[in-house]
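Tutorial sheet, problem 5. The two components below are modelled jointly, 230 residues in total.
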Amino acid sequence: ETGVTQTPRHLVMGMTNKKSLKCEQHLGHNAMYWYKQSAKKPLELMFVYSLEERVENNSVPSRFSPECPNSSHLFLHLHTLQPEDSALYLCASSQVSMDRVARETQYFGPGTRLLVL
Amino acid sequence: KQEVTQIPAALSVPEGENLVLNCSFTDSAIYNLQWFRQDPGKGLTSLLLIQSSQREQTSGRLNASLDKSSGRSTLYIAASQPGDSATYLCAVESGGSNYKLTFGKGTLLTVNP
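Model answer (structure tokens):
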């Protein structure tokens, strides 16, 4: 496997279900991200983990719960979602530098297409 | 709060034409600006990254410019091909928000054979 992989690629769930999205990066990066992409809206950053610590949470509802057990793996646990949570969920990774002199791009996975019924 | 706007929202051109996509941002205190490509239902692919100290970057038929003071960037695609059809997204990394990219809504490009 190379790059950033995400599973599952497609997910249909009811509002009372609990499911998890998985992301794995094979690039040796030290930061990982969850984004939400809804129709007609810009990509929205949900969570950032740098060096396995959460550094930003953009006031995402608590029904979304991230987990980053190590620098290569990132999960998004879902419970009691709403139909408006249906979207494409994208994971990304990057190498972040402490001095911020030069920043590299983020590498994205293919996404999980989520439908909440 | 940083806001990114992309114009036009959609563009359709015949094959072989040169074209320009526009991106503007409201806060000029940025670390970098990036252009991505997204194919339908897929993830994003990075095309070009321009650091705040740079004016432009080139990769093959693509050239991106950055005018930080005016809050503008353009993506120039030369000799467009049907395979260039995709949504092009502009994103800026702003100072003060660690590692956060703010995206525009994108420009949907269709290159007709």
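Marking note: The radius of gyration of chain A is 14 Å. Full credit if you identified this.
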